[in-house]
Design goal:
Radius of gyration of chain B: 31 Å
Number of strands of chain B: 4
Strand content of chain A: 25-35%
Number of helices of chain A: 8
Radius of gyration of chain A: 18 Å
Oligomer: heterodimer
Largest sheet of chain A: 6 strands, mixed
Distance between the termini of chain A: 14 Å
Number of strands of chain A: 10
Distance between the termini of chain B: 32 Å
Shape of chain B: elongated
Strand order of the largest sheet of chain B: 2-3-1-4
Strand order of the largest sheet of chain A: 6-7-8-3-9-10
Structural class of chain B: alpha+beta
Helix content of chain B: over 70%
Helix content of chain A: 25-40%
Largest interface: A-B, 24 and 21 residues
Structural class of chain A: alpha/beta
Shape of chain A: globular
C-alpha cells in the first residue's frame, strides 16, 4: 500500500467514505484516498467494484453516507445542491458517452462551458481556439458532433472539460468506446494536459493504456481499495 | 458589465432555444394559443353578462308610497330617514302632483280626469323611489322601510325580481368559475407541455450543471424561454380579441337584444384590458410551466 505524508500538496482527500444505495448495495466501504496536485491516477477494478460511484462522488453527483471528501479546500460531502456549481467550476469531467450537445457546433460546445462564467466573446474565442488546437481539432470548429468520429467527439469533450483551466480532470472510462489507436491518441492528449499541471483521475478497463502510461494505479474491489501502486501495471494490479 | 452580459446571454440563449427546438416550441405555443382563445371567449361572455347584470340591478328600485295624510315636514323626515339606512344609493322624491302630470300625458281621457282634480284633492300618493347598493339585500331594505310611520306601501316587484337576481347570480358565478377553471387548466396543460419539451433537453441541463452553471443560470434562460413561448402563444388570441370583438360589436350594432338590457360592452377600452390580461396569462403560465419543468431536473 502506498503511504502518504498528507502534505499541503493534496488536492483530493477522501476519509472513511462509505456509500450504500437505497437498494442495499454497498458501493464503497471505508475508502481512504489522497491524491496530490499534478498526479495522474488510474482507478481500475471489475464492473461493480465501485469505480463509478467513487468518480461520481468527486464531482458531487453522489453524496457519501459517511466520511469526508475534501477537494481543493471544499468539503464535497457537505456541499449543498445549489452550491454544487462552485465545485464543478474547479474541475472538468469527461465521460465514455461524450455528452455533447448535438445541436451545437464543436466551437459552441466548448464555448458553452465558458459562457456560464460570462467571459467576453473575444476571450472565449481566444481560449476555445487554444484548447481546440491542443486537442487537434482546430480545423473542425464548425462541424456538428454527429459529423465527427468517436475519437474526435471525445477530444471535443476533453477540450470542453479543460477550457476553464480546471485543477482536476475527472475521466470516467474516456476510451471505453474507442479503438486502441484512437484511445492512445486520447491518452496522449490527457498526458499533455497532465504535464501542464492538471491533476487527472481516470477509470478504465483498458489494460494496454495502464501498462503503457506507467502511472499511479488504485485498485478497487467490492467497494474497497485493495491496492495502490505508485507506478503500476495492470497485471500487477488485478 | 458582467451582469449586463449575462442578461444579454440569457435572452439570446432563450430566443435561440425557441428556434432550435422549434417543433416542441410550436407544440407549446399552439397549446397556449388554443386555450387562450377559449379564455378570451369566456372573458367576453362573462364580462358582458356581468355588465347586463349590473344594468338590470341599477334599474331596480323600491317605490315607497306615503299615506295621504302625511304632512310635508314628515315627508322630508321620511326621506332623510331612508337615506340613513344601510344599502341605500339614491333616494328620489316624486310628489302626487308629478304623478298627476305624468298621468295626463298618457292619454287624453286621463288628462280630462286629472284636470278635474284640484291641487288639494289629488287622489294619488306622494312617493320615494329608492335605489339600493346591493341588489341581493333589496328585500331586507324594503322591510326596514315598511317599519317607518306614514308608509302606505313598499313595492319592488318581489315576485320576478327575486328570480332575476337568482338567475343573474348563477350566470355570473358560472362565468367567473369558468374563467378561473380555464386559466387553471391552461396553466396545468401548458406546464405539462413545456415539461415534455424540456424533458428532451435533460442532457442539456445535465451538461450545464456539469460545466459549473449555477442553478440560477440554468433556470433563468428556461424561464425567459417560457415567457417567449407565452408571448408568441398569446399573439393570435389578442389579434382575435381586438379585431373579432370589434367586428362582432359592429355587426350586432352594440346590442344583443332589442331592449337596453342586451347592450354589449363598448369595445374600448375593454379589448385593451382583455388583451393585456391574455398576454399576462400567457407570459405567466409560460414562465411557470418552464420553471416547474426545469426545477425537476435540478434536484439530485
Amino acid at each position: 500500500m502506498r503511504i502518504w505524508d498528507g502534505g499541503v500538496m493534496d488536492l483530493i482527500r477522501m476519509t472513511n467514505v462509505q456509500k450504500t444505495y437505497k437498494t442495499g448495495t454497498v458501493a464503497l466501504y471505508d475508502v481512504d484516498l489522497t491524491i496530490s496536485k499534478g498526479e495522474f491516477v488510474f482507478v481500475i477494478g471489475a464492473s461493480g467494484s465501485g469505480k463509478s460511484t467513487l468518480i461520481k462522488m468527486l464531482y458531487r453527483e453522489e453524496k457519501p453516507d459517511k466520511g469526508s471528501i475534501m477537494i481543493g479546500g471544499i468539503n464535497v460531502a457537505k456541499l449543498k445542491n445549489r452550491k454544487v456549481y462552485i465545485l464543478r467550476r474547479k474541475l472538468g469531467v469527461v465521460f465514455q458517452d461524450f455528452k455533447l450537445l448535438p445541436r451545437l457546433t464543436v466551437y459552441e460546445n466548448v464555448a458553452f462551458a465558458m459562457e456560464v462564467f460570462n467571459f467576453d466573446k473575444r476571450k472565449i474565442h481566444q481560449r476555445v481556439m487554444e484548447v481546440l488546437e491542443l486537442v487537434g481539432l482546430k480545423g473542425k470548429v464548425r462541424q456538428y458532433p454527429d459529423q465527427l468520429s468517436g475519437g474526435e467527439q471525445q477530444r471535443v469533450v476533453i477540450a470542453r472539460a479543460i477550457v476553464n483551466n480546471p485543477k482536476l480532470l475527472i475521466c470516467d472510462e474516456p476510451t471505453g468506446n474507442l479503438d486502441p489507436d484512437t484511445s492512445m491518441g486520447i491518452m496522449k492528449v490527457l498526458e499533455d494536459i497532465n504535464k501542464m499541471g492538471t491533476t487527472i483521475i481516470m477509470t478504465t478497463h483498458n489494460r494496454d493504456i495502464v501498462n503503457k502510461m506507467q502511472k499511479r494505479v488504485v485498485v478497487l474491489n467490492e467497494g474497497k481499495i485493495v491496492k495502490d501502486y505508485e507506478r503500476g501495471k495492470y497485471y500487477e494490479a488485478v | 458589465m458582467r451582469l449586463f452580459r449575462s442578461i444579454n446571454r440569457y435572452f439570446r440563449d432563450a430566443f435561440k432555444s425557441v428556434i432550435r427546438n422549434f417543433s416542441l416550441s410550436l407544440a407549446s405555443i399552439s397549446c397556449i394559443t388554443i386555450t387562450l382563445i377559449v379564455v378570451a371567449i369566456s372573458i367576453v361572455l362573462s364580462y358582458n353578462v356581468e355588465k347586463m347584470t349590473q344594468h338590470v340591478s341599477s334599474n331596480i328600485s323600491i317605490v315607497v308610497f306615503l299615506n295621504s295624510e302625511t304632512k310635508d315636514t314628515d315627508v322630508l323626515k321620511i326621506g332623510e330617514d331612508i337615506k340613513k339606512l344601510d344599502n341605500i344609493s339614491e333616494v328620489t322624491f316624486k310628489s302626487k302632483k308629478e304623478y298627476a302630470e305624468e298621468t295626463k300625458k298618457l292619454d287624453e281621457r286621463f288628462s280630462l280626469i286629472v284636470d278635474s282634480w284640484t291641487d288639494d284633492k289629488i287622489p294619488l300618493l306622494d312617493s320615494y323611489e329608492v335605489k339600493v347598493v346591493d341588489i341581493d339585500l333589496i328585500g331586507k331594505t324594503a322591510d326596514e322601510i315598511k317599519k317607518f310611520d306614514y308608509i302606505s306601501s313598499v313595492n319592488y316587484g318581489e315576485e320576478y325580481i327575486e328570480s332575476v337576481i337568482t338567475i343573474f347570480g348563477v350566470i355570473e358565478k358560472v362565468c367567473i368559475g369558468g374563467v378561473i377553471a380555464l386559466v387553471l387548466v391552461t396553466a396545468f396543460l401548458i406546464a405539462n407541455t413545456i415539461k415534455l419539451a424540456i424533458f428532451s433537453r435533460k442532457t442539456e441541463i445535465e451538461i450545464m450543471r456539469l460545466v459549473g452553471a449555477s442553478n440560477m443560470a440554468i433556470k433563468v434562460p428556461f424561464i425567459i424561454e417560457g415567457s417567449f413561448i407565452g408571448f408568441f402563444g398569446s399573439i393570435i388570441p389578442i389579434v382575435l380579441m381586438v379585431y373579432g370583438y370589434n367586428s362582432l360589436y359592429n355587426f350586432l350594432g352594440g346590442q344583443l337584444f332589442s331592449s337596453s338590457l342586451g347592450k354589449l360592452v363598448e369595445p374600448y377600452p375593454f379589448i385593451w384590458y382583455s388583451s393585456g390580461l391574455l398576454l399576462f396569462i400567457g407570459l405567466l403560465v409560460g414562465m411557470f410551466g418552464s420553471y416547474r419543468a426545469v426545477r425537476k431536473y435540478l434536484k439530485i
